[in-house]
Amino acid sequence: MKAYFLSRLLREKILLLAFTLLGAAIWLSGVSDRVGTQWRAIKATTTDLDVQQRWLLQRERIEKEATLAIEHLDPSKSLDSVRLQNEINSLARAAGLSNYDVADSRTVRTNQFAVHSVQFSARNADIAKLIAFYQSLAQRAPYLGLEQFALAANRANPSQLTASWRVTSVEIAR
Looking at residue 103, what DSSP letter applies? Predict the structure, then answer.
């Protein structure tokens, strides 16, 4: 290879050297992208592991607080999935909302309790009725909770709002 290179004219040597350097630069660019991606993944994983370790170190305190909180809950006030949908319907009617929808509930169960969630959306409502619904929902805490909320104005009539909530309830296992 050395003999081939030395037997070339100067301009050919410069061209071969330029192509070799260009190829090396392209290869190094790809390597640096992969190394950067890998480094970011390592940092993200390290951060996640640190957060998990902090939670695990507080396990006893969290379990004790959860046990105390569960002791203060009244099982008769906890709602199953059907009662959750009925409660959301009655709160919406009491707040004066007329154009609303309550989606089917989803349930996540553990050995101590079940968490039910429904998606509630109200269309073309005024802000006062939405606030009244929210306040009546807040009065039912900790048995009802707001997990997610989105609000958008109607383009045709900005005083009319569309709101979407994900409401959860806790059912204590009996």
Answer: P
